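Chapter review: from sequence to fold.
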Amino acid sequence: MSLRERCIRPFHSRSGEPRRYHSLDALQEQGFPQLRQLPVCLRIVLESLLRHCDGARVSEEHVRALAAWAPNGARTTEIPFVVSRIVLQDVAGIPALCDLAALRSAAARQGRPVSMVRPRVPVDMVIDHAIDIDFHGTPDAPLRNAQLEMARNEERFLFVKWAMQAFEGVRLIPSGFGILHQVNLEFLARGLMRDGEDVFLDTLVGTDSHTCMVAGLGVVGWGVGGIEAQAALLGQPVSFVTPDVVAVELHGSLSPGVTSTDLVLHVTQLLRKAKVVGQFLEFVGDGVARLSVPDRATVANMAPEYGATLAFFPFDAQSARYLIETGRDPAEVRELEQYLELQHCMGGASQAEVRYSRRMRIDLADVVAAVAGPKRPQDLVPLSRMKANFRGVVGASVEDGGYARPEADFRARDGVQAPYQARDGDVLIAAITSCTNTSNPSVMLAAGLLAHAAVERGLASKSWVKTSMAPGSRVVSRYLEAAGLQASLNTLGFGVVAYGCTTCIGNAGPLLADAEAAMQHSDVIACAVLSGNRNFEARVHPSLRATYLASPPLVVAYALAGSVDIDFATEPLGVDASGAPVFLADIWPTPQAVADAVARAARPDFYRSVYIDQLGKGNAMWDALPTPAGELYAWNGASTFIQEPPFLKDARLLRSSLVDVVGARALAILGDSVTTDHISPIATISAQSDAGRYLQALGVSPSGFSSFGARRMNHDVMTRGGFGNIHLRNRMVGGEEGPWTRLQPGGERVSIFEASERYRQSGTPVIAIAGEEYGTGSARDWAAKATRLLGVRAVVAASFERIHRSNLAGMGVLPCQLPADTSVASLELDGTETFAIVGLRDGVSPGERLTLSITRVDGTQRSVPLVLRLDTPLEIEYARRGGLLPYVLEQLV
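The token string follows.
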């Protein structure tokens, strides 16, 4: 009898139906006395390993290795994690389905049954990233935006409808219902899963880095690239190295007036400094019980911003209450609690026994009202110092994160000019948006209460501010309307424009006409303020250099002020009808007012109405689209949106990557904090870019370009967008902004895409070189796919973010890490060098030591040790076969 079979026990469900589960107590009896010392998040992963221990995907050794986890042991053991379900959003999920369609086409070419390419676990897809804010401030704005969404994305959506009929097991939530992570928190996550007789805990991965938001509800889940998600969807394990698990001890309480947004920005700064990249975090301490599930989910949502894989809050009484308040069946919730008790995964009652890799303490009383920016979410700015900080960052050097503008050139706002004249610090976009905060009734209702007080005092948003509200679910509108607060938000311009992911991912649409015109001829540092999780340069709007993350009530406050160049403590937002100044403190809602509003909003019938009644009726515009039929997708060679991916067709992409790189040139030499937005922009395609010129050559007018996000199923467009961010700084061109490099030898200044093509024609291999935190940001598979299609054999970096490193490995691009005492600056590179990476061979192991050889123009050489960041045996197999897709096809065949 196998280990798995020896650990099966009956589960006496409340329904009386015969069930069974894989008992961790029974596993402990098999010779693992220290299971109670495991962090709760690892116990849940261990349950999955035990349940799937079949000797093939998961072996008994895998189970034994995790059961014997040591808090500070060597991190070399691979965990093959088979998840219970998959979640997809459209911007990454549609390309993932496109790759599945390509797998079917490849299987058909080999004479194999195409039905073998199908989901092996339940899949939910939410269409949430396709809508832009073209219209706002009017009652019909949601409808008009939705109509444009359908027109712009018709070809993509037709593909989705084909995929829904071709692949069984995929449930679709069409556009207009909300953002994946909020829908997951409020509806999709059930806690306890069933498959035949087996019951087990909900675990998942998703094609968005913020999938980890659901960990605020006690569910183990995180974001992966679309490449990994495809493998998981086909039943392959999500492979990762045994992690460190850090206990984050929360103590005390938040001060009055401090929001969950302030908390998560505080946490993001602390944990980014603590270097928790790739680690699991488990939140414990007396302060946890004082945070609601939406508060916890806010913190869990931004784990990618501080680099952690998982920010886990063990399920407790607060979690159970949330499930019931959001419309789940109370009997199912009680059964979940019963199961968690059996598996010793309920709450933190036994925390004294648990061992962690390290512990960190955060005192909630230390959190103050704050924003983060202007370029990174970890750059916390206390609200009391915002004005001084902004003026300082305008004059700071580019190397210090500033804009290098002399202090004397600062253009301050002096009254309200008409017509509009741009001034430094002007807020041109104020958006209540993103799953991070719109999932939390406390901050949404606080925004409504502040708006109500502002309207009563006669205040209005400044005329140059584009205001909008895009909730992550329709439930938000239900409770704002029930509280009588939506009317005041409408008055200030924060009417609903859509239910989806908008400004936070760059779907902000155009600025107001006067502001758009002014910014075309100005170098002022204008701003966006939004309640999102990302504020990288050029992400929200190409004309806005500075972006600040803030709580929803502060977004409203900045719309009233019209500028970030304001000290809220000493300068008024405006004057009332009597001419008296109105300060932020005068209209900020009291904690009791917020608590009362939240208590009134906690109505299960709101959630049942949206997710059962409304969702059951579907989306009329979506339903009107025809459904293409067939097991195989009919690729159209003339399409500029959808082309069959080359990864299973191009022989050059099917070769092993485990071959020494000799005589290479650098395509780009980059600094620290290069994001996936820098590597693969998602924003609007410029007519002057390589991608824009390519589309125009095919007869597409600039008005029809759409965005890189919409064209992610056309590799010819996406490759031309690789490293195409207008604010990319390549040291090979002296730090000039844009997608530029120098072709060697000779030093001709060309676009990165053109250089890659000319190097390909000459047979010259290329590499990319970067600093710390390479690949931060979104779980964007195209950041790795474009890198591969540009011919980059290896990325040499000081450190990698988790998801992007994994995506590079999945595409057969070698992530190579520099020693801790070596930086890009210390290498003293100018781009004229030739490079070699040696030590690669079929027999390499995870973490293999390699050598980077640098030959300068004068003939001098330098050798630098590297670590090959293929971290698991499975990633070695991907590299040997040219990437994950060829590997998966081979496994299926």
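Two observations follow directly from the output. The mean pLDDT is 93. The first strand starts at residue 8 and ends at 12.
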